[in-house]
Amino acid sequence: MGVLKNVGALVAIGAVLIAIFPPPDVLSGLSSNHDHGPLEIQAIMTAFCLSPIIGTLLGEREGIDTTGGDFKFEEDGDIENDEYAQASIYAILYAMYKNTPNLISPHGKTYQFTFNTWGFAPSPYPEDDPQRHGKAAYAGLVTQPAALEYKKKLGDTPLEIVEIGCGTAAGANLITREVHPTAHYLALDMQQAAINTCNAIHATEDNPGLTCKVVPNGVGNGGNQAPVKDSSIDFVVISETHIADIEIGDLEKEIFTEIRRILKPNGLFLWGNAIPTRVWEQADVELPKLGFELVNNKNHTEGAVIARDEDKERVDMVMDQLLEPYYIMNAPYFGPRCHKVGERLIANFYRHPGTALYLKMVTGYDSYMHQAWRIKK
Ligand SMILES: C[S@@+](CC[C@H](N)C(=O)[O-])C[C@H]1O[C@@H](n2cnc3c(N)ncnc32)[C@H](O)[C@@H]1O
Ligand SMILES: *[C@@H]1O[C@H](CO)[C@@H](O)[C@H](O)[C@H]1NC(C)=O
């Protein structure tokens, strides 16, 4: 690796890689319909680290808007959602996770990062389980009182579940293996890389209840449907998906309408996320207009802050472990600057203590809620 510490060699390698895989702009131009391989990710990271966006994100130039208030990217990782396509960030994150399958937890356990979930405390799963808060969120969402009553009435008939925005389907995997083991679960995401991971490690032969499918460009986008018949589903799950993180807009209304189409008459829409408190208030007005009524509502914000505190050590380790495989990180000048930006981007995504998104949960600007909605009779 010594030679790679030489900037000249690095730039040359970067140039070759870039010539082979023309890099899109990491913050906006990556495609979710494509699974980026290891060499391609090296090229993308090299281009990203050498690009002027690093200086911009470090506050050396004007040009990036933060989400308002006293937040600054270089200190707390704040960046306005509109500044980048979420899809690009996920494309690279999922590729990075897959590229780093042997993360080490603070308890010395080896694991692959599959939950893209903040989750909350307390968790019923053991303290040395590195993904226990995400597991708590998924298990809690599908065992809300209304969901348990529904399941009881259904008796031996398998639950038909659809998830929109499943990521690698880590939560779906937990549900089909442990929480509702007889369920038929269709897990949907717009990211090809995430669905590939699902098929490789979650929807395996020993877990026949789980199926993962990619929905190119996402459910609801331009009227895109879920590949599911009308009135056929017991539970639709959405957990920590960037729906309604700014407002209940056209996309959200399309998605809710699609959920209504596929739910059975008594079926439940089980929704959990940390989004602005005002958007939850807007949902209380908009979902009833689309024919839903609220049947469970639980505020997990305090537990979500505790989860981020409890998870701090693990996430600190993850950031180093995720960024470590990229040659460009070893380059003088460019490497440390890029590492800092990468760390801040990942930290804010994880609502890591000290970041803007963490502080927003502490102040109650954002709320982590679990809700169950039913179609109004
Ligand atoms: C923060 S990740 C969470 C993934 C998963 N729910 C978890 O907790 O691990 C959000 C996911 O939602 C997906 N997503 C967002 N909007 C979507 C849509 N309209 N249709 C399908 N997937 C969507 C993204 O591709 C991304 O994988
Ligand atoms: C949830 O609880 C937090 C306090 O932990 C509060 O600030 C917030 O307003 C509550 N959100 C909702 C939607 O009730």
Automatic annotation (TrEMBL):
Residues 161-267 form the Methyltransferase domain. InterPro entries: Methyltransf_25, SAM-dependent_MTases_sf. Signal peptide: none annotated. Transmembrane segments: none annotated. Gene3D superfamilies: Vaccinia Virus protein VP39. This is Methyltransferase domain-containing protein. It comes from Triparma columacea.
